[in-house]
Specification:
- The protein has one domain: SH3 type barrels, CATH 2.30.30.
- It is built from no helices and seven strands.
- The strands form two sheets. It has a five-stranded antiparallel sheet with strand order 6-5-2-1-7, with no helix packed on it. The protein has a two-stranded antiparallel sheet with strand order 3-4.
- The chain starts with 18 loop residues before the first strand and ends with a strand.
Length: about 80
Amino acid sequence: MSANHRPPAAETTVSAGTRVQVNPASGGGAGVVVEDFGPLPADGVAQLDRDTTIRPRRYAIALDDGTLIFLDAHEFTTP
């Protein structure tokens, strides 16, 4: 693996305190994992109302700008 290659987060050990880089498709930015909610159920989709569904995310990440976001491992990399 080259020094400039960042492995996908799914290939590494990610826990609270891990520094991450959010993929541009997921909003971009850098931050720190503040919570790992653990593996999610396969059918983890909730119906909020007639038109709105949500899916839980595994990680809570505090971005350097103070924003708190929720992502899955494929949406960020580790340095």
